[in-house]
Recover the amino acids of this structure.
């Protein structure tokens, strides 16, 4: 475990060295779980959850920004870096994998994150827009999942009114098949009335 | 003081320690004969309890609900069928209901002595449920278990914490699989408490959850597959029917 810590720490200091060299960041925090680079306008941190999930993440933000820092998945989507989406979620419990991923995080950030590392407002607006969009989509997805799950049970029980009640609020997000099911449930519930 | 025949019942030993003294006032005037007298005594007990509450204001109203909940439980478990708290709940006035539930227990002896238990058994059950609801409402302003995203300082710093806020910090079992087994087991235990579980990885402007993978996502899935629903306005998952 200790070796894995050291490996991630060392790989971070080497891989993300460009932040200090090219963008004037300094290493503001350096412990076994987090290495944080700070330029005064922007921070970038590599975080390793060594005691629970073994997840490795890279986050970024502005020091006075409210709320959680932007995660790497948001960064990838905001800057349309579609060919590295596997970096959205990284779990590393061995040295080789951990080192490889930290190096790739650094490489992708260096190549695509200039606007963020410079602290350009436009870059952070993109990140915030991405977050808002992701949050909305996630909420809709959860509501749809909940609605269809309730509707499924109601359908099996022959409770067509229940199907209508569960699916109507999420009607706009239903698939074609689900919409047909809703229409059918509406007809049957009318017949039952 | 209403005009009525009155037998003074000493409540000593039933429920008084540190709780709501309105109960004692109510009990002290509770054993009456006749429906009109009962109503008059109940009104008197209410007035006394209200006076007592005014004379002894307590800033933490949730303590009333806790007291009421405990008292209600004691009453229910002892098959003592007398409550009339539900009305206040129907009006949405849970604070009053919490007080009422406490001091109306003073009328338990009256109910058992003068009226059949069947009618009051139903009322008791409803009132007990209402008191449980009051307890939940009373804890709304309080914190609880917080799901968190590792490394997110806004998730794990003490800033903005409410009373009772906490995280699942568990010993490392050596692998993600073993840690998840431990983590999910503890989360299920927490779910059995039927109290809101907060999600600290959310957009502060809207309260919406920030999508993520990993353990936090697995925790969310675990809650949702068991019918828990996230509410952006409270920032918490609430149990089914809660």
């Amino acid at each position: 475990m200790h070796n894995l810590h050291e490996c991630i720490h060392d790989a971070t200091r080497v891989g993300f060295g460009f932040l200090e060299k090219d963008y004037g960041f300094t290493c503001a925090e350096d412990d076994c779980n987090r290495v944080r680079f700070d330029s005064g306008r922007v921070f970038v941190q590599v975080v390793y959850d060594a005691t629970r999930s073994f997840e490795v993440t890279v986050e970024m933000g502005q020091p006075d920004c409210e709320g959680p820092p932007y995660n790497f998945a948001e960064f990838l989507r905001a800057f349309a870096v579609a060919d590295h989406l596997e970096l959205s979620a990284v779990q590393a419990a061995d040295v080789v994998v951990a080192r490889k991923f930290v190096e790739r995080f650094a490489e992708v950030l260096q190549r695509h994150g200039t606007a963020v590392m410079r602290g350009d407002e436009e870059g952070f607006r993109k990140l915030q827009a991405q977050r808002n969009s992701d949050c909305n989509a996630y909420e809709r997805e959860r509501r749809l999942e909940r609605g269809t799950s309730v509707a499924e049970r109601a359908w099996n029980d022959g409770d067509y009114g229940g199907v209508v009640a569960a699916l109507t609020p999420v009607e706009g997000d239903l698939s074609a098949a689900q919409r047909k099911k809703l229409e059918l449930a509406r007809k049957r519930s009318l017949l039952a009335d | 003081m209403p005009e009525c025949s009155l037998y003074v019942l000493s409540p000593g030993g039933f429920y008084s320690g540190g709780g709501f003294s309105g109960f004692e006032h109510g009990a002290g005037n509770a054993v009456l004969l006749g429906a009109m007298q009962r109503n008059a005594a109940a009104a008197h007990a209410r007035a006394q309890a209200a006076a007592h509450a005014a004379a002894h204001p307590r800033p933490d109203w949730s303590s009333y609900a806790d007291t009421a909940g405990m008292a209600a439980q004691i009453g229910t478990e002892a098959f003592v069928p007398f409550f009339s708290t539900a009305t206040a709940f129907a009006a949405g006035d849970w604070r009053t209901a919490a007080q009422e539930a406490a001091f109306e227990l003073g009328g338990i002896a009256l109910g058992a002595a003068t009226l059949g238990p069947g009618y009051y058994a139903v009322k008791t059950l409803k009132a007990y449920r209402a008191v449980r609801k009051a307890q939940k409402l009373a804890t709304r302003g309080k914190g609880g278990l917080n799901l968190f995203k590792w490394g997110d300082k806004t998730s794990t710093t003490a800033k903005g914490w409410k009373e009772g806020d906490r995280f699942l910090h568990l010993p490392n079992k050596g692998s993600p699989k073993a840690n998840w087994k431990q983590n999910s087991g503890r989360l299920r235990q927490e779910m059995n408490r039927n109290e809101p579980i907060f999600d600290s990885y959310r957009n502060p402007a809207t309260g919406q959850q920030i999508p993520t993978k990993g353990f936090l996502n697995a925790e969310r899935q675990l809650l949702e597959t068991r019918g828990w629903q996230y509410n952006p306005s409270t920032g918490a998952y609430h149990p089914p029917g809660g």
Remarks:
- The CA atoms of residues 151 and 157 of chain A lie 10 Å apart.
- Chain A has a mean pLDDT of 91.
